[in-house]
Amino acid sequence: xxxxxxxxxxxxxxxxLLRASAPAAExxxxxxxxxxxxxxxxxxxxxxxxxxxxxxxxxxxxxINLWRRQRHAARLVRSTSxxxxxxxxxxxxxxxxxxxxxxxxxxxxVVGTLALGIAANTAIFSMVDSVLFNxxxxxxxARLVGVGPELPKLGRELSFWEVLSPLEIEDLRExxxxxxxxxxWDMGNRTLAGEEAPENVFSAFxxxxxxxxxxxxxxxxxxxxxxETESGEKxxxxxxxxxxxxxxxxxxxVGDTLLVNGDPYxxxxxxxxxxxxxxxxxxxxxxxxxxxxxxDRRQFQFLAxxxxxxxxxxxxxxxxxxxxxxxAEWSDEYEEYEGWRLEAMTWNRINVRLLRPMAMVLVGAVxxxxxxxxxxxxxxxxxxxxxxRQEIAVRQALGAGRGRIVRQLLTESVTLAxxxxxxxxxxxxxxxxxxxxxxxxxxxxxxxxxEINGRVLAISAAVSLASGLLFGLAPALQASQRAIGGGLRxxxxxxxxxxxxxxxxxxxxVQVALAVVLLxxxxxxxxxxxxxxxVDPGYKTEDLLTFRITLPWERFDQPAITDFFGxxxxxxxxxxxxxxxxxxxxxxxxxxxxxxIVIEGQAPPTSEGSLPVAFVxxxxxxxxxxxxxxxxxxxxxxxxxxxxxxxxxVLNRVAAERLFPGEDPVGRRIKVGAGDERPWIExxxxxxxxxxxxxxxxxxxEVFGSVRQGLGANQLFVAVESSVAPAALVETVxxxxxxxxxxxxxxxxxxxxxxxxxxxxxxxxxxQLLLVLGAFALALAGVGVYAVVSFAxxxxxxxxxxxxALGAGRxxxxxxxxxxxxxxxxVGGICGLLGAAGxxxxxxxxxxxxxxFDPATLIGAVALLVAIALGATLPPALRASGLxxxxxxxxx
Amino acid sequence: xxxQRTPPPRDYLGEFEQLVLLAVVHxxxxxxxxxxxxxxxxxxxxSPSIGALYGTLERLEEKGLVRSRTGASTAxxxxxxxxxxxxxxSGMRALERSRRLLDAMWEGxxxxxxxx
Lengths: 892, 116
Description:
The complex is a heterodimer of chains A (892) and B (116).
Chain A: H1 2-5, H2 12-21, H3 27-45, H4 47-75, H5 86-102, H6 104-133, E1 144-150, H7 166-175, E2 179-193, E3 199-207, H8 210-214, E4 220-221, E5 235-238, H9 240-247, E6 257-260, E7 263-270, E8 282-285, E9 301-306, H10 312-330, E10 341-346, H11 347-352, H12 356-387, H13 389-397, H14 402-440, H15 454-481, H16 484-488, H17 493-534, E11 544-550, H18 558-574, E12 578-584, E13 594-599, E14 613-619, H19 623-626, E15 631-634, E16 648-652, H20 653-659, E17 669-672, E18 681-687, E19 702-706, E20 715-722, H21 726-740, E21 746-751, H22 752-759, H23 761-795, H24 797-805, H25 810-843, H26 855-881, H27 885-891
Parallel strand pairs in A: 3-8, 5-7, 14-19, 16-18
Antiparallel strand pairs in A: 1-9, 1-10, 2-3, 2-6, 2-9, 4-7, 5-8, 6-7, 11-20, 11-21, 12-20, 13-14, 13-17, 15-18, 16-19, 17-18
Chain B: H1 15-26, E1 31-32, H2 33-44, H3 50-62, E2 66-73, E3 81-87, H4 89-106
Antiparallel strand pairs in B: 1-3, 2-3
Helix pairs in contact in B: 1-2, 1-3, 1-4
């Protein structure tokens, strides 16, 4: 009875199964149909029969229902269930790719933007990682340290190259408990001779066996034995690249004999690959005991490992004690020990500390660019999600849950992000190749071995995925928040468009702000570079070819050296294409050798004052003529100033002013270096001072001596002035040198202009990279402005039509559109300027004769940005003013 | 000849499609899922699954042979709406063409002249 009145509900589980499996569009109809018939059948044949029938229907429908759902999912409407499984993810992925292909311009813009951003990031990070964080392939790099002194009395800042004397190193070796495997070395040039043409090899001369200090094993043979480096054993270790190049990688070379400067040396070892210290291809023992050098011959580098159980801080504490002990013992004789100190630093840090600020600027810049990329892509996706509002509304109407839609949109943005990431890494590997070739032109302590390593790859993958999620989230959440009804009706766009527009405007503001910061920073560095290139070095740089020659002490005594260089310059000048040739111990712009100067009749300065120092350069008489340095007082060197004549000197203007303030130095006498045994030298002239320590430094005090008077220099640069192309001249020079001595090689061949350019190369490189990044940022900001204005115009088509129908002119509409677009640009610009002020402060140390608030750069950056922003608003503004009010109002 | 599958022409009707279409014709625009299924079951003794039925109806609708509208809901359906189906003019033409094709093939086969 009761069963007839109440047929009962269909089986719950079957019903649930049908609900879960039916295509969304027909779920309700099917459930209704079956329930209705179930009721009929239950009344006729009882619930049990009806239930069984219901189950049979559901199960029979299962395959086709599932198949059709899959088809629907792939076709029009995304699937509707809340469950997550691999199929759905694959569906989402397929759909995302199809979406990407359907809108090529949009996808290219997003993927391209991301790819360029990630490429810049990966490339710069790879470079910084291999050049800065990890330049040396040695184990436990944190324990490998160098030690350098600060000598305030000599005006010497903390430095680690050519800074310690052998006796100081001996003091350290004897007294230090925190350092072990102590080695010291000097570098210079040697000629390798054999069956082939003589070859100059850059060489290192050692005290101690550096291999355990570096923590490497020789590829073949052995390192130096204890005592071997002091006793004068003629043994040699060669670099792996020399081993490959000159000896064909044949390990039989170990035990063979090499002619080094004409002397036979037995090869005892080959360095492992990638162990190339400052490009030295030949390692030989110092050959003398440290005690033979005076205490102030500070021309050696120091390297050691921190002993087990000590930290860098322990080392520095101990160094303070040792420096104090040395000062107490020796400062009577060597005044420079007063107030000196010693500091240890990891070798990695020592070698990169000069490059570090520029590299950090670049890393900061690429981080900015990546932020910009994310803002830009978010902006693009927001614009896209407006266009897809209807599709999303349909999906929601068909039952898609919010989570499902968010996931689909996220899949889409992550898909784009991953595509961008993959393309970006590919681009980055190209960029890294370019950077490597640039970096090898810089004077790095090890050959730059830049590669995209796993760490960098992981960083960029994380960045690309994170940015995908980041920019995917905002539009996804926003898109799914709306009520279903809103999006289905056309023209209902304004109510939901407002918040999105606000987000877009904020994003554009952020983009503009970032672009301003980048442009301003890049502009400051560019302006610095321009200023730097504008500096007049104060000596001749054009038409000058320079090279270096080292004459082995083994075959050349001082008179022979003087004679060799005298004849060489004479013969070179005899050639018609050569106007002038001069020899010098160091080239202007790259001075390295400074000494203490003692003035006759002048008491040494008080303990607070610093001792006078000057660069000391040995030159041939025609040096001043070749480099076009004007004579201010007295005379320059004459041929008669030779070994038999009294020793004379010429000062540059800075040395004259510093050593003899307010006096005429000509006729006065000085000494180079302290010590009673050194001779007094008479000053005969003063010449003009150029930027002899680099164009970014003030001219430094320099004291010249004549090569003809034998100043103990066996290796000299030769500068040749000619109107002929340098490449053609190299052969001439080589011929002339060979004519004098077939065993002598020339090396370090470059034009004076290249030498100066290599000085500013790191700066140049950074500016180039920053300009590329800045242009990219500008383009991105332009795209962002364009996207937001286009979107606003599309949103307000009806409003614009209405305004025009009510009499607004086209010009007025244009003004209205542009005015609206420029608001976020202005706000972003102002925020950017505030950020730029901070960046400028951080950059200050990198600037050259440019104020951190350089008005020209400021105006330039802002003007460029406004121009780009205006350019980007123009197309949509023209489109808006070209609207036909009749059409827009009807359609709206 | 086994696997030479080419897509059927637009107006080709499969057997089940014919059954569904004819049931919809019989119900004169008032057919919905349950009644179309019932009509086929009543006339042929076959009991198609509801899933197969809707799958076919969807295909027919895509081909433009039927159209559907959402109707009122009733309590005995658990408050769920019905979807009514009606045959379109091209649906009728497709049915007639199928019948002519079959007639032409049956013609002259003995003992079948008055089979219908």
